[in-house]
Amino acid sequence: MTMRIFIFGAGYSARAFARSIAGEAEWIGGTTRTEAKFAGLRAAGIEPFAFDGTDVSAGIAAELERTTHLVVSAGPNEAGDPVIAAASGRILNSMPNLRWIGYLSTIGVYGNHDGAWIDETAECKPRAGRSDNRREAEKEWEALAERRGVPLAILRLSGIYGPGRNAFVNLANGTARRLVKPGQIFNRIHVDDIAGSLAHLARAETGGIYNVTDDEPAPPQDVVAFAAELMGVEPPPEIDFETAELSPMARSFYGENKRVSNAKLKAAGYRFVQPNYREAFRTMWTDDKWR
Fold it and tell me: Is 277 helix (H, G, I), strand (E, B) or coil?
């Protein structure tokens, strides 16, 4: 069936999705806050629209009437989800062709689980602030999708990396650090698998909550060391987390420790392009796709 896709918040992940599904979609539109970013959206195959988080323009409203698949990547704030605030009435009453909604969230909604393996049934105990706001936004979208009667896929993303955003870049520009906190594990996902899983769920118009994370949660210092080995450079020295100079926000990330399972997404038929950081890094380095 024909797909006309509209993306609220056409950033790094959403642009990768647009590129991956361009040959299957009749049309793809998306928003950014400033016209200065319009050229980047067009390069990704997205017709650009400005959205400041408050008002839906006449142009966006007209396209929403024709939209079949709605993707939301814009983040919430203390006031709630900006897309729901600006467009919930249109989603309920003025999108006659809408068949599916995809919402990009974060595994941050789970909070800390002391390194244990968790899946989508785990208790959500997000930190106050961004993660808590995201969980509340998930609930708002669940309620809206139920009222509208369309499937909603919530994709809970782990730490995102890919071209331009990876340990190679950090090593090259001298910002890479190897912080060591014994027992600390982080989860990560290559942007190609965010794009691929979103496209997979959109094609099938599948709803539900899905963890989008690779097969191998790993200590962050190991990832930096592996990238340095591939580059043939010395890794930065290990730094004890307890004595490291970190911003409060950076330190707070280390307060969450969990191993997140992707079994449900695999059971839905998705096969990962980059199943772990080692394979992804080898590919990025060999193919020169890390910059």
Answer: helix
Domain count, the chain: 2
Residue 264, domain member (yes or no):
no
Would you state the pLDDT for residue 250?
Answer: 86
Kindly state whether residue 266 falls inside one of the protein's structural domains.
no
Mapped onto helix, strand or coil, the DSSP state of residue 77 is strand
The three-class DSSP label of residue 282 is helix
Q: Is there a single domain that holds both residue 119 and residue 28?
A: yes
- What is each CA distance from 26 to 19, 21, 29, 71, 101, in whole angstroms? 13, 10, 10, 15, 17
Is 262 part of any domain? Answer: no
Same domain, 116 and 180: no
Q: In this structure, is residue 269 part of a structural domain?
A: no
CB 53 within 8 A of CB 25: no
Instruction: Return the DSSP state at 126.
Output: P
H-run or E-run covering 134: helix 130-148
Q: Taking the complete model, does pTM exceed 0.85, yes or no?
A: yes
- Answer for the pair 200, 262: CB distance below 8 angstroms, yes or no: no
* Domain span at 204: 4-159+188-212
Buried b (16+ CB within 10 A) or exposed e, 85-110: ebbbebbeeebeebbbbbbbbbbbbb
Nearest Cα residue to 254 out of 159, 173, 171: 159
pLDDT in tens, 3-30: 999 999 999 999 999 999 999 999 999 9
Q: Are 198 and 82 in the same domain?
A: yes
Closest CA to 111 of 122, 101, 97, 102: 122
